[in-house]
Structure formats: C-alpha cells, structure tokens
Amino acid sequence: MRHRPLVMAVCSWIAGSALAYFHEGSAFWLFWLGTWLVLPLLGLISRCPWKKLLIYGLIFSLGAAYWSYHDGRNVSRLSEWLAASDLGTAAVSESGQTQVQVRGMLLSPVEVDGDRADFTLRIESVSFTGLQSAVRSEDAGGEKLNVQLRLASIEEAAAASGWRRGQRLELEGTLERPNEARNFGGFDYRKYLRTQRVHWLLKAAGISSVKVEADAKISPSMLLGKVDAARGGLGERIERLFPDWQAGYMKGLLIGLASELEPEKYAQFSQLGLTHILAISGSHVAINVSLIFGVLRLCRVTRESAYRIVFLFIPVYVLITGFSPSVIRSGLMTMIGIYLLRRGFLKDGLNVLSAAALLMLLWEPYYMLNVSFQLSFIVTAGLIVFVPLLMPYLRWLPAKAAGAAAITVAAQLVSFPLTIYYFNQFSLLSLAANMLLVPIIGMIALPGGTAALLLSALWLPLGEWIAYPVRLLNTATFIVTEWLNARSGFMTYWKSPSLMWMAIFYAACYLLLYFRHRSRVVRQADLEGSDDTQPLDPLAKQRAWRGRRGGKWLNVAKLRPEHLLQVGLAGLLLVQLYLGYQPMNMKGKGHVQFIDVGQGDCALITTPEGRNILVDGGGTVSFRKPEEAWRNRREPFEVGAKTVVPLLKKRGINRLDAVILTHGDQDHAGGLQAVLEQFAVDALLINGSLSDSSTIAKLMDTALHKGIPIYAARQGMGLKLDAATELRILSPEPDASPQGQVLYSKKQNHESIVFVLQMTGATFLFTGDMDEAAEYRVLEELAGESRTSNLANRISSIFIDVMKIAHHGSKTSTSAEWLEYWRPAAAVISAGASNSYGHPHPSVVERIASSGSRIYRTDQHGEVQMEVENGRIRVRYKLVSPW
Q1: Which pTM value belongs to this model?
Q2: Topology in the membrane (predicted)?
C-alpha cells in the first residue's frame, strides 16, 4: 500500500468518517487523539515517510470533519417548527400525529403495490392545522417526506402509477414519525430513512386528497421522470418478450427492477447468494461495454471514437438501470478507466476504485452506510487483491475456467463477512451455485436478453426469436436453484459479527494467501537460480532446494518460521469461524426474550446449556375479503418472515430444540410457518386440539413434511430441558379422546398451553391466551380439589418471578385470584402499539400494579429481555437505554 498513496488516502478518509459515525462528543476526541498517537507506530511498522503519514492523518481528520458537518446538517426543520408552534409537545411525540397540507415536487418514482402508493416528496410549502400561515418554500429548506398514500380503488392505483418525478403535488394528510427498531437487532426504519435525509412520514387517504399540478418548468427531477418513463417502456417490452415470472426476472437482470421478481423466486436466489446477479454492477457494465466495443469494431469505428461513444453510453446506462450505488461505482470506474486508458495512465485498478469511492463519498457521505455500496467496493477490491493470489491453486484448470473460478472464490471469500453481518445466513452451496450459474447467466442470458430487447425495437418477432432460448435457459436456471434449495442441511445462520471479527478475518485471509504466495515465489526463484545439471548423489534432493538470491545462499530451513506463521493464520481463521458461528447468548446463563411482534405473542427461551425453545410466533391478522384481493401487496408483511425469523438468525440460532404453540389463534400461530420452513425443529408441542383454519392446516402439513415430531401437551407433563431447566405443564387438562387422535376445538384460548419454567433458580409462568375459567380450573387443581391433587407438589414454589400476562392484557383473564395465588414479582404484557383491541385493558393493568408487580409492556418498552443467573434476573428493554 505504500506505493498506492491514493488508496491510503481514501482509506484514511473512510476511517475518519467511520470514527465520526460511531462516536461523538468526548468519545470522538479521545479516539481521534489516540489515532494520532498511534500514527508514529504505524509509520514505523509500514516504513512510511513521516510527511506522507502526516498527510494521511490530516485526510483522516478531514474525513471526520466532513462527515460531522453533513450529519450535523441532517436535521428536520419540521420538528423545530412543530416544537415551537402552539401545537405543543404532543405534536412531536413518538405517537403524535399532526394534520398538514404540503406542496412539493416528486423526487422518486411512484411505487404502487396493492392498495398503497409510496413516493418521496421535496417540500416547497407546508401548513399545519392550528397555525395561522404556511411556511414559505425558502424556509422549508427542501426537506423531504416519504408519502404513503392509501388507495381506494384499482382506478386510483392506475392513476397514481402515471405520476412522474418532477411533477408538483398538493396533498393533505397526517404527519408521523417513522418507526424505530422495537427489537434488539431489528430493522430500524427511522434510522434508515435518516440516511436518506427523511425524518417524517406523510400518510394520506385516496388520491382525492392529492392535486397534481401541470408541468411548469424543466428541472433535473423532471428529466429523471422522463428516464422513468423510458424505463417503464423498456419494462413493458420485456414483458412482451418474456412471459409470466420471467418478465420480473429479466427486468432485474437487464434494467435493475429486481423488486418485480416473484418473492418465492427471489428467496431462492437470496438463499444461494445469487442476488448480486439482479443488482446491476460491474459484470453487467463490462458485458454491455464489451458488446458495444464489438459492434463498433465490426462497423470499423476507430478506437478513439469507440472510447468516446462508450464514455457517453455509461451515464445513460447508469440512469436507465436505476442509479444504484453498485452501478454508479462500476460506471465511474469504467469512465475513469477509459479516460486514463486514452491518456496512457491506466496502471492500477485499486487506484481507479479508490477514486470512484472518494467521488461518491464526497457527493453523498451516507453512501458509506449503504449495503450495496459496501459490497460493491469490498468485492471489487477483493477481486483485484485476491484473484492473483488464488490463480496458482487453479492452474490445473483451463485458463478461462481458472480465471472464472478464481473470481467466484474471491468474491465469495470477500463478501462472506458482510453477508453474514447484514443477512445472517450463508449457504454452503453458494460457491457451487455461483460457479455454475453466474457464468451461464452472465455470458448467455444477459447478452441474449439485451440483444432481444434491442432488436425487438426494430422488429418484435426477431426479438422474440432471440428471447426463446433465453427463456429456456431461465427455466433451467430456476430448476437448478429450486433443486439446490431443496437440499437440507446446507443453510447456516450466523449472528452479526463485530467489526473487529471482520477485520481479523480479512487480515488473516490476506496474510495467509500472501505468505503462501511468497513462499511459492521464493521456491520457484531458488529452483530457477540453481544449476541446470544436478549431481546424482544422496544430497541432490536437498541441494535442489537451495538457490542463490542476492549473492547469498538461501537454505530451506530459513522458511520454517514462515510455515509456522501460515499454520497459525489458518488456525486463527478456524477459531474465527468457530466463534462467529456460536449463538449470541453464550452458555452459562439463561435467557428469556419476549419479542415484540405487535399484536401477538412470541418468546424465545435459551437455557444455560444452550437449548432454544420458541413459544408462539406471533402472526399477521387480516380481515380482508376475497373481493378485495387487489389490495394485497406483492409480498405482504408477515411477522414470522419479517420479524421472528430475521431475529432468530441475527442471534445465531441454527436450530430450535422445541417450538411450543400455546393455541391455534392466528396471532400466535401465524408466524411459526416461516420458522418451521427455515429452521431445523426437533419437536412441536401443541395443546392437543386444532383450530379449523388454513394457517393451522398448513403448519401441520409443513411439520409432517419435514418430519418434525408433534406432541400434545397435557396437564401434569414435565420436560427436563437441561440440568438447570425444567418445564411443567399446568393446562390444558387431559381429555377423553382416543389416544393419538387430535380434535378440532373453537375454544382455543381456553385450551391454551400454560406452563411453569424453572431455570437456574428463577421461575416464569407462561399463560398463552387462557381465560378466567381456565385460571380457576388450574387454581382448583393446584389447591388439591380435583383428582390430580398432587400437581401442586410438582411446583417448587407458588411465588414466581415473572408472569407472561394472558391474552395481551384482555379483561377476560388475569383475575385477582390468579394474581393473588402466584404473586409475580414482574409481569410482561405482549401487545401491539396502538392496537385496535384496546389491549391491555386499564382494569387489568391497575390490578397487576396493585398486586405489587412491576409491569413490562412490549407496546411501550419494545422487546423485553431477561438474563437469568443463580436466581437473579437482569432486565433490559429496547425502547429505553440497555444495560
């Protein structure tokens, strides 16, 4: 790196920006001062001249200052106006909603999905209900709003689809704050929107609340609207060339509209690590540039003219394909490379990559936090650095195959830490899938689809003929991906690693390959420097390993410390992988985590020996009628797939020892479908009855198909989970149904599984959605008034530490007698924020508080986590400062 000052300068800039992002105030200045104190040591190790070192330090400081300046200006003027207005603090509270009228310009394409249209609006004027005058446009500062427009009919959806960037809209709606993460490690929508410089949501109902103004003057946004129209036209032509699901796939492959691919097929690509195919990037640009150069060569265009044509083509291609960070990076690199090539200065790809990174970060510092930006640059840098180091291992392959294999292996190796950091999963078949499919798609489907699209503009049947073999290839591609995804046991889930873990992984991989490469070069040089003829004596083999370098004899014994270093680095990598694969909650302590799934129940129990038990999975409740199917989104929100499964992955859980479904209601069972589909589950525990619903039928079919044992929980049963953890079932009561037969029951709340969990000296009571009748029955059993009077003796103490309140705090349960018997020290209520049921009921909350229990509520606290050790419980919750 000493010979690449631009690379070092850009790395220094990014390091300074990262420091400013992670730390502020006194912590920032301490780390900044520490960096300057360490610089001399770094210079001594790298033998970097002190002048260069000083320049890098200044660039580091400048990067931090640049980030701090831009981040400090990323504030909402609307919040300031609301706080200063006579609307008071309620207008800017977390749940506060304010009626506003805004006028502004469309900044983004309108995305219509089901009965909702989403777009970004730059404010030109805004007026608040309760304020006398509107804020002038020059005072608004161009603040952006994300608008969510609820559509009333299919006709309204069609009308909204016709809006284009650059148009001016007037609309009235409700101003709301974006949701923040409600679970530890969950997606923070508020934080994400801030990186887009958006601080507020505007929710409006129906396009009757929107007035679209006629186009007035030309603006950059209006020109982008023309690009959107052209892109839409290309999408319509692709639909004519490729039927059904292939249209969505080819839109992603050719023009970057990956969102239109069927969710199921996108998931197949995602699980195999193939989604980069649908993100327009360097390979797409390289293939299209090569095609253009080839056509221009056939037309006998001069080299200089060809360079100019391609140079002008790149910005157009970047705009047409969506202007994403990955395509901007590849476009900039191509343009810089062409310019340097014409000047005769193109020597080093890392310098070109660094120049592109610096230009993008100067334009938008928040690109540094963008996943696409990070993956694009790190993978590109990895290809430049690692491919030459990997090529000697692949010499047994033909040259082109070796190059393709080295690129695939390097890309997988470099992207692995970022992949598990953001997506928390990695398929062991990913390398094979990429080696098999990426070359075929890149060399046949992409150019073939491009040719079909372009030639169809001249004559549609010609484009259809060219598209036909591409269709067959697409069908074969997804047959292969489906077959690979059907292979069980190859998907692994990883907790998000620390930045230190990632840095050590990259350093160990590079040093291991580098030292191996250097050893190979030294051996080759020694052999080439030896005499052509070797004496035939017993020492000939030993002398063959001797050579002459720099006038001095080199003995193979001197390489032994380097061999030991290589072994140490390989061992370090194995240790890193082992530690990274361990779950977030290490063994030795128990954990009970009440996950916020909105209006529903979900809890994850991790025993001190590492057993994982999931109790319920939440579920999305829909009251939509069949005739309103048009309102459904392409990928409807489902709490199991969008909340529960990602959180389990992020916490490094690879299998569940048991799943307990307390009863068959949708808000408890719905989310378990995604859990059973994606995780290995050793046992499914149900209440012995089934509800007559499609959700339960599909869940049971999935469990049977995957060979998951299903057990019926009954009063008196006990489970010894590990040496320090025991579970006792209190309800439902045994029935008289024939053994092995499961009955249907509409009284699912009454039949809820109720159990006591005793773990390392602490006691938890889980109650499902039991009603008061079930409570009284359990109390009678425990009091010895029924035929199972010995049940109370199985519970070591009637005083419990934590009670999960039944039925989200509904008034139909949690009676005074129930609380009096158990006397819980703490109570957890799982309910959705601003739910339409009014849960928890005020009388229940008052009753619990009067009993002396401390109350934790997911609607107010978000996820509630409890760590148990030797009978002591430590509690933290997401929406307040953690431990």
Answers
A1: 0.89
A2: Multi-pass membrane protein
